[in-house]
Amino acid sequence: MSIKIDLLPGYINLQRWFKNWLLIASLALLLTGTTLYLLYHQGQETLRVTRENLESVETNAKQAEATEAAKTAAEAAAAPIETNVQFLVDAGKTGAERAALMDLARRYIYAGAVVSSLDMSDGQNVTINATVRDPEEYLRFVYKLREGSATYNGPLFAANPRTQSVVPSGIPGGPNLLFSDPVSAPGEPARAYQYPLNITATGALRYPVTVPSEGGAAAGAAAGGATPGGAPPGAIPGGSPSGGSPSSQLGGSPPGATTSPSASPTPPSR
Cβ(252)–Cβ(193) under 8 Å? Predict the structure, then answer.
């Protein structure tokens, strides 16, 4: 059996031990540095990808906002067209019914009247603008309208139609007659009115129809309304504002009127 005797000094072993631990420490340090570098590189790569994704998301968000704005603008631009199309579709459904009402109204308009407009656009009322020659024809015009009212078992009006305004007009360059209104009170001068007469008459339909209005309910209300500021219902120049029978509205019998072929006077203030 051999005996191993270490005759080297002790610092030699210490140097060997130190070199070994230094090598181990260097390897550990290198491994740690490599690990930290790899982790840092991985973090930087993750950060780069995150930034790219964020930029992509921001770009997509801006594109989505622009698309939504374009969609909103297109819908706003198409809304009036859709409204008009729907109005035409709805109005077309009541066209035949309104045409029948127009024909029915025509039958109760005095044949001697010149009609400038016949409005029943709201489906509830009829407004007629017409011109007649003199108060006698105005009587015939009113009586003919009342033949169509429910009061006289007529099919057109729910009640007797009323004249909203009667305005003297005359015919420029034509034979303009004058009608002298009887003096209503002592000391008041007689008033003269120029013929022919422009009449606005309105009556509620006995059988109204539902008619769509273009642009909303306000447009329908405006279309069916009477002219504001006109004469009281049933009144004509020189007549009583309380309505009553057509003959009483004239303020006197037409045959007793004073006529003259003179030139047109200034219309009376209303």
Answer: no
* Rounded-to-10 torsion of CA 220, 223, 226, 227: 130
Question: For residue 259, what are its two tokens?
Answer: 């006529």
For the whole model, what pTM was predicted?
A: 0.46
Question: Which residue in the block uniquely carries the two structure tokens 């007649």?
Answer: 132
Strand order in the sheet with 125-132: 114-119, 125-132, 197-204, 162-168
Name the DSSP class of 184. S
- Give the residue among 258, 257, 240 at the shortest CA–CA distance from 249: 240
| pLDDT digits (tens), the chain, 270 positions | 677 666 666 667 777 788 888 889 899 999 999 999 999 999 999 999 998 898 888 888 889 999 999 989 998 998 888 888 887 787 777 778 888 888 999 999 999 999 999 998 888 899 999 999 888 898 899 999 999 999 999 999 999 999 887 777 755 554 445 544 454 556 655 555 567 888 999 999 998 887 766 654 433 333 333 333 333 333 333 333 333 434 334 333 333 333 333 333 333 333
203 in Cβ contact with 152 (< 8 Å): no
Alpha helices in the chain (DSSP H): 10-93, 95-107, 135-146, 217-224, 246-249
Closest CA to 169 of 186, 194, 151: 194
Distance CA 62, CA 33 (A): 43
**What does each C-alpha distance from 62 to 49, 52, 54, 59, 66 come to in angstroms?**
20, 15, 12, 5, 6
Whether the Cβ atoms of residue 131 and residue 194 lie closer than 8 Å to each other: no
Closest CA to 259 of 191, 171, 180, 166: 180
CB 154 within 8 A of CB 108: yes
